[in-house]
Amino acid sequence: MRRASGHWVIEAVHGRGSLGALADSTSGEPATQPPVDDAARGADGAPLSGPLDERARLLDEGAGLLDAAVDLERGLAQLAGARARALASFARCRPSAWDRQPGERGAASAASRAARPEALTTVSEWAVAEVAARLRIPGRTASGLLADCVELVEQLPATLASLEAGDISWLHARALVDLLRPVADEKKALVEARVLPRAPRQTVSQLRECTKRAVAKIDAASAVRRLVQAVRDRKVTLAPGQDGMAVLTLVTPGPVGRACYEALVGYADACMTDEEGRPDPRTRDQRMVDCAADLLLRPDAEGRSPVQVLLTVIATAGALTRTGPDAEEPGEIDGDTVPAALVRELVYAFGLMPRPGAAPAAGADGVSAGAAAADPADVAPPAGGPADRPGPPPTEGSDPDRTGETAPGAEDRPQAALAALVDTRRIADTALAERPRIAVVDELTGCLLALTDSIELRRAARDGHGLGPPPETDGYRPSVPLDRFVRLRDRRCRFPGCRARIRTCDLDHRVPHPHGPTAHTNLEGLCEHHHRLSHQAPGWRLDGTSDGGLVWTLPGGTTITTVPPRFGTDDGSAADTGATGRRTTERGAARAIDDRVDWRHLTPDERRARSRALVLGRRPRPDDEAAPF
Fold it and tell me: Of 118, 138, 140, 210, which is closest to residue 172 (Cα–Cα)?
């Protein structure tokens, strides 16, 4: 090693597992690369040591690992191309002619048909549910994936070929599908020919910008159609955020969105200081959010009736009182899991329980008189509720049925406040829409056993009878207590992976009425789409289990079992079978063994051939069993 001009240049040979050379940065002579094997060596043949050797080793090892990542990324792209062909072929096996047509009883509504992607108009509406169940993805995601695959295979062959070659990623392909959707069919190939040669060297955002420019030049009319469709697709969405937060999104034309944003900025700036000139401690973003919520939720200043919001709050007694082993057990607000602290804050804000350290003025029913009535809440403490954790014992001369009103010590105030809330008799001038319910839950399984209140608890104790689900109803519609019990038990749609809130679901008779009873054992909550699927979709079957589970059998023979989510979780999958089922036919078992291939050891050509074999090899053979419908 020689040093000249005051510094050295280290050149690592990419992917060779060795230090390439040390060369003078000013001399034009090529550097000599001594032969090395596992470690870099100096001019005397001895291995280099010290920080220089360690840095070179890490640089070289990292380059090799990145090579592997790049190779795997190409493999993922090739598999994505094979998946696109498989799903597009699957879609052709599910024609829309199987569905009930408009005008027939039980057919999809006009709104449901209009909401479907155009690429799926010739595909059965039940195909999306089948994809969602097998791939374990939400229905909306499955609909988008299936539509993308159909468009990619049938309308963008050059893009699909580039994806199968590993030149572009699935995200690149999706971007092209999205941007070329409104382009006239005869012009899509022209856009592909213009943008695909550069696509392998571009990021997704660069490809999108390049494609937009090409579309604007080749098919200017599509830009107008895209704008019109975007205006039609304006909407408001709500998605759960992290740590008990939520993301409320307003999708609106640009000028309207800008006007709304600037209005919120103006409102936020107007409340930077209070009437006495003191600065508001909140940031501008915080003030903008608070102003937006205030404008939407407050009573209108011009006398119009305020919109009331119904929230269902589920929390343990320990979480509400901040005592015991479940003091920080997360709760649910309208089906979304939130931290226990947020549940308590909501209860305090509604005036349902006094804030710790405050001295509330109790009303006649034992609830704080300062309850806000704008936002009603239905509070139902489940497992570990007052049925299992009674309040302080009555003092001499007190009414044993009103233990929650006994003057407690400081350490018993949270439990006494909760007992007073549960024993609420009058809901006028409170934030309650109904009297609080107490959920009795099996401690081992987490299943709902009974849904009761303080009055029924006293009656059961006095008469010496136990608690259980409401009795069955003679008619078609369940009674109010039975309806409430089933909805709280299921909490969401019982189809695998569906997250539709139970408030918007139907209560379906598994065995149709009048052949089956209107009882909790024969009722389950299903959203409208999956309710219709359970009765109409060809090849599907719905059965029950002795422990309250639902067994969904898909057209291919796969079975998926869902159970009511236990309290303390939001998972409706069966613990013994997992979220996915398996085909039980011998052909399916043999195929599963045959598909166990170590893709890391395949060459790109072998991966491509294997991917095609996975797709083409699933065509039915003459000796295959008949379809189940």
Answer: 210
Long-range Cβ contacts of 328-332 (<8 Å, 24+ apart): 329/568, 332/491, 332/570
Q: Which two tokens stand for residue 137?
A: 């993805």
Helix (H, G, I), strand (E, B) or coil at 108: coil
Mean per-residue pLDDT of the chain: 76
How many degrees, rounded to 5, is the angle at CA 536 between CA 530 and CA 540?
75
For the ranges 32-36, 444-448, 552-556, 621-625, the lowest mean pLDDT is seen at 621-625
The answer to whether the beta carbons of residues 422 and 353 sit under 8 Å apart is no
| CA–CA distance, 236 with 251 (Å, rounded to integer) | 6
pLDDT digits (tens, 9 = 90+) for 212-243: 888 888 887 776 777 777 888 899 988 888 87
Measured on CA atoms in the order 442, 447, 450, 451, is the torsion positive or negative? positive
Percentage, residues of the chain above pLDDT 90:
29
For residues 513 and 522, give the distance between their C-alpha atoms in angstroms, rounded to a whole number. 10
Q: What is d(CA 490, CA 7) in angstroms, rounded to the nearest whole number?
A: 71
**Paired residues of 380 in beta bridges:** none
396's CB contacts (< 8 A; 6+ apart) are none
Nearest to 147 by CA among 121, 186, 184: 121
Quote the pLDDT of residue 333. Answer: 80
d(CA 235, CA 253): 10
Measured in Å, how far apart are the chain's first and last C-alpha atoms? 78
Per-residue pLDDT of 418-433, as tens digits, reads: 888 888 888 887 888 8
**Amino acid, single-letter form, for residue 401:** D
Cα separation, 51 vs 462, in Å, equals 82
Please state, in angstroms and rounded to a whole number, the distance separating the CA atoms of residues 172 and 188.
16
Q: Hey, how many other C-beta atoms are within 10 angstroms of the C-beta on 15?
A: 12
CA 234 to chain CA centroid, Å, is 21
- β-strand partners of 561: 551
Residue 619 and residue 92: Cα distance in Å, rounded?
12
Distances in Å between the alpha carbon of 111 and those of 102, 114, 115, 120, 383? 12, 5, 6, 15, 40
Say how far apart CA 9 and CA 27 lie, in whole Å: 11
Dihedrals phi, psi of 412, to nearest 5 degrees: -105, 0
Tell whether the model's pLDDT for residue 393 goes beyond 60: no
Question: Tokens 């608070």 appear where?
Answer: 290
Dihedral over alpha carbons 211, 217, 220, 226 (to 10 degrees)? 10
Least confident span in 2-16, 155-169, 416-430: 2-16
Scored b (16 or more CB within 10 A) or e, 212-242 reads eebbeebbeebeeebeeeeeeeeeeeeeeee
Token pair listed for 100: 């009930």
Q: Are strands 19-24 and 235-240 parallel, antiparallel or unpaired?
A: unpaired
Q: What is the dihedral of CA 312, 316, 320, 325, to 10 degrees?
A: -160
Do residues 177 and 160 lie in contact, with contact meaning Cβ atoms separated by under 8 Å? no
Secondary structure of residue 248 in the 3-state scheme: strand
Q: Within a 13 Å sphere around the CA of 612, how many CA atoms are in the beta-carbon half?
A: 9
